[in-house]
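Reminder to self: tokens first, then the designed residues, so the page reads top to bottom the way the pipeline ran.
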């Protein structure tokens, strides 16, 4: 169960009368409603008396005073229990929100407000009102007349409700100063303050189960009329207090549960990648699969690779690039312990690395609209989750493609990002849909003389990622050179063990993906 589901379940239990036991000594909701109606009558009589007193003070005659339109008390429209959404205890009553609160809205914001009468006051709108709290930084101001201030000002204990935005979102104004309201905020003032917090939790439940501004009992917007007609289950006042106390105790635990679940989700999201990194590190240190003496040694493998490479150089089959010639005398670093049958070597010993030569870069004039007009130009955006993706491609002209044969891609090559924020990202090239090359951000690894996927896993390992940081240059646009990559020391197992490592990694990675 998610924290939201748990919160809604607790709130549902509360507003159906199942959260705390009923106590006959606490009276009934009917008595509470009678208190509210008595207070309504008193306020109406008080306001009417004030109107008459003001008229007499202004010198009006008794005949004129009798013509003053006085406020009349209207009994609340009862709620038919058969129309209610759920059953409630016998001591409770269904009521309409407008029968237990005085309602008004804020002032409409318009371009003419700056020239209107009144004085400037700060005001809040829906962007300041969140569930159970307010964000009050950088409040704006507009003019309010004395009459507007009386109607559009919230005071301590008022329940404020969003008409727009996140419809129904509510909070109680619990500050020791008053605040003005913009018209998309409803103000609900209780006839006395003790039941407001319980109603706030009812509104939270209704919103959580789409009974406000969505499906359910059908409140499809939150006009003043719709708000005042919301049907609420009302317990006796003392029971409300016990419900609120229990809710605050339980909902604080739900909040802790939510924080713990968020941490767990973050951990679970990171766990697959952490497991993969751990496995890669085990793989390149010789601890993932057992060594087999029948595999021979990596030294034999490496000597054979180097002899064949030297033969091809002498025969003119291979012409070393400048970066390759520079790393020829690089010292091999033994970065960590490896099995006796393994051997440290340079990346340059077992493959070749090429990039787009500076003067053969391309501009917008070299771009074309489709691959049929030329070739795909692979970029880091085509390298997604350690795989190739051809959904979004850039295309360059046939002429520009043919200009650099050394960076023409084929299935089985390896790509690595050498420039930009994703430097070090590495993929095995497969399923090429068309002839392709690379853009200047990438390097292509070709002529690989060891198991290609083993090499990819080495380059994706935590060890390699740390090495890239050692020789990356630039802060605004980090980059590393082909020379630095070719000169990196890598651990080399015998070829049969390389293949066992790859098979084991792929088996375990498939299991890890099931955790996502």
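Designed residues (516 positions):
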């Amino acid at each position: 169960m998610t924290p939201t589901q748990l919160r809604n379940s607790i709130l549902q239990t509360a507003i159906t009368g199942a959260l705390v036991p009923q106590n006959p000594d606490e009276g009934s909701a009917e008595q509470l409603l009678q208190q509210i109606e008595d207070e309504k009558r008193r306020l109406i009589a008080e306001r009417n008396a004030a109107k008459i007193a003001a008229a007499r003070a202004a010198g009006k005659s008794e005949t004129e005073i009798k013509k003053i339109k006085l406020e009349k008390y209207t009994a609340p429209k009862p709620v038919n229990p058969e129309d209610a959404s759920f059953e409630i205890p016998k001591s409770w009553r269904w009521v309409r929100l407008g029968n237990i609160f005085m309602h008004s809205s804020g002032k409409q914001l318009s371009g003419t407000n700056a020239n209107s009468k009144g004085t400037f006051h700060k005001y809040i709108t829906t962007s300041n009102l969140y569930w159970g709290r307010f964000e009050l930084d950088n409040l704006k101001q507009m003019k309010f007349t004395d009459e507007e201030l009386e109607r559009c000002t919230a005071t301590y204990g008022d329940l404020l409700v969003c008409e727009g935005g996140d419809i129904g979102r509510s909070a109680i104004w619990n500050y020791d100063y008053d605040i003005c309201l913009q018209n998309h905020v409803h103000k609900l003032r209780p006839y006395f303050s003790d039941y407001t917090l319980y109603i706030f939790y009812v509104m939270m439940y209704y919103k959580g189960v789409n009974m406000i501004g969505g499906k359910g009992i059908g409140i499809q917007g939150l006009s003043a009329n719709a708000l005042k007609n919301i049907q609420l289950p009302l317990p006796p006042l003392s029971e409300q207090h016990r419900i609120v106390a229990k809710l605050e105790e339980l909902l604080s635990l739900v909040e802790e549960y939510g924080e713990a679940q968020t941490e767990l989700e973050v951990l679970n999201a990171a766990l697959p990648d952490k497991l993969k990194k751990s496995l890669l590190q085990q793989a390149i240190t010789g601890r993932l699969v057992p060594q087999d003496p029948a595999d021979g040694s990596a030294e034999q493998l490496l000597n054979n690779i180097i002899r064949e490479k030297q033969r091809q150089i002498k025969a003119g089959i291979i012409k070393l690039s400048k970066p390759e010639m520079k790393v020829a005398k690089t010292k091999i670093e033994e970065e960590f312990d490896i099995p006796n049958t393994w051997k440290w070597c340079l990346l340059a010993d077992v493959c070749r690395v090429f990039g787009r030569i500076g003067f053969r870069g391309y501009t917008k004039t070299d771009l074309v609209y489709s691959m049929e007009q030329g070739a795909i130009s692979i970029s880091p955006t085509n390298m997604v989750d350690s795989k190739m993706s051809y959904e979004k491609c850039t295309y360059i002209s046939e002429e520009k493609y043919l200009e650099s044969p050394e960076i023409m891609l084929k299935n089985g090559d390896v790509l690595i990002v050498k420039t930009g924020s994703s430097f070090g990202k590495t993929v095995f090239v497969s399923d090429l849909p068309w002839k392709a090359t690379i853009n200047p951000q990438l390097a292509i690894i070709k002529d690989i003389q060891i198991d290609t996927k083993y090499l990819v896993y080495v380059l994706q390992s935590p060890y390699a990622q740390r090495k890239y940081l050692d020789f990356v240059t630039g802060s605004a646009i980090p980059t590393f050179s082909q020379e630095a990559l070719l000169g990196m020391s890598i651990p080399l197992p015998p070829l049969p063990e390389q293949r066992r490592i790859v098979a084991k990694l792929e088996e375990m990675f498939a299991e890890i993906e099931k955790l996502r």
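The first strand starts at residue 93 and ends at 96.
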